[in-house]
Amino acid sequence: MESGAAIRVEMTKWGDRPHWEYDGVYLGSDEHGEWLGFPVGTHYRRPGLDFVATFDGVTLVPAGGAAHLAAFNDERAKAAVYVDMTTPAAWEGHVLRSVDLDLDVVKLQDGTVYLDDEDEFAEHRVAYGYPDDVVAMAEASAASVLAAVTQGAAPYDGSAERWLGELALRRR
């Protein structure tokens, strides 16, 4: 895909239940994967909730089909890093699709790191019937990402700054 191409992200919950949808721009790729940009003014919507971003963010679609999507936000956002555990994301043309599996690793601007929504994951794995292999994948991905974010390992080592800068340049 060409840098600057318009893209769309369509997330669902298990069982094809609608979740977040939003538009952005394809920024490029590096050794970590593909980078997507979402500038101030991006409209995020899901059933029962929508908001317009007051911050710039970039999302990493990890190389190798890892089971998460990592968002890196500028200093105006509450969370500097927000990683959704998902099924491996797949492109269908210019639309990126994935299933959100509830668990999130969050790093606040003050450096606090935590695993979020364990209760939601426990509830949904029963209510929606997550298969055992999907549960194991989400739990393993969450543990791996939590360790990497806590340790500041790549790509949670400032690698996203290049792409936040690229997004800012596109607005000029």
UniProtKB/TrEMBL annotation:
Lineage top rank: taxon: Bacteria
UniProt cross-references to InterPro entries, sorted A to Z: DUF402, FomD-like_sf, Ntdp-like
GO molecular function, one term: hydrolase activity
Lineage, highest ranks first: Bacteria, Bacillati, Actinomycetota, Actinomycetes, Propionibacteriales
PANTHER family: PTHR39159, UPF0374 PROTEIN YGAC
Residues of the DUF402 domain: 30-152
Keywords of the record: Hydrolase
Pfam families xrefs: DUF402 (PF04167)
Organism: Nocardioides thalensis
Gene3D superfamilies: FomD-like
Coiled coil region boundaries: none
Name of protein: DUF402 domain-containing protein
